[in-house]
Design a protein that fits this description.
The chain has a single domain (about 5-280), classed as Ribonuclease Z/Hydroxyacylglutathione hydrolase-like (Metallo-beta-lactamase, Chain A, 4-Layer Sandwich), CATH 3.60.15.10. It is built from seven helices and twelve strands. The chain has helices at about 40-55, 70, 85-105, 190-200, 220-240, 245-260, 270-280; strands spanning about 5-10, 15, 25-30, 30-35, 60-65, 80-85, 125, 130-135, 135-145, 150-155, 160-165, 205-210.
Length: about 280
Amino acid sequence: MSDLSIQEIAPGVHAALGGVCNRGLISQGGSVLVVDSGIAVAEAAPLRAAAQERQKDGALYLFNTHPHSDHVYGNQIFADCSIIAHEGVRNFLVAHGEQALAGWRQNPHTAALVSDVIITPPTLTFQEQMTLFIGDIEVQLLYLARAHSPSDSVAWLPQSRTLFTGDLLFNAQVPVWNHGVEEMPPGGSVANWIQALEKLEALEAQHAIPGHGPIQTAEALADLRRWFLSLRTQVEEALAGGWDRETTITHVAQQLQKLAPRGDEERLPNVIGQAFDELSRA
């Protein structure tokens, strides 16, 4: 993990960078909303400190965009606050959180990182959307779909046209879903992800903070949608041609990197394989 870095996006609106995922801080009038807590207590603690520097007599809230570990395993640092999320996030953590955490603790590469994590589900949930005012800053929490995870939502700030996308946006990286032990039941869908990106593009954001990767222009939403469309088209063509799963993975991975190269290409076999499985059932 890198040191926490706070980058101003608009007055009172900041991206919190340097963790496994990108997070956010929205503050005005002594109240603060934190977007995602991070993957561990050690990662969440500096973010809580940064939030408290901005909090005066107002409230402190935490919003979880989705239930994956790198966004919620720091929740216990905010256990004395209202933790807000779509109802699907709470349901997933209550039903499967301990099992997913056990999987992380069995992995020698992540065991120490999550050794002191206590699963801390959201305490305040919504179904379709919820609006908060942090001072005079309007924050709309919008549920999109089961796309990257079993439950994906965003924070939309219409005044500054700033969008905290959670993991619906990966910039310069191959996107991932179905995180192994975390997907019980499975989450993620190519079709739903494309539809979610279309809805986010319709907001006409000026600033889009991705869940992973560098901050780029909001055109990155369209770039990722086109990447998924290319993935879907190529896998559909492979299925129509009678190709098997492994042949499809090899061919499509080469084509995707040729047409629109992204980092972390070692993820491609898993991503293409999942798309193959989904489209095979269609």
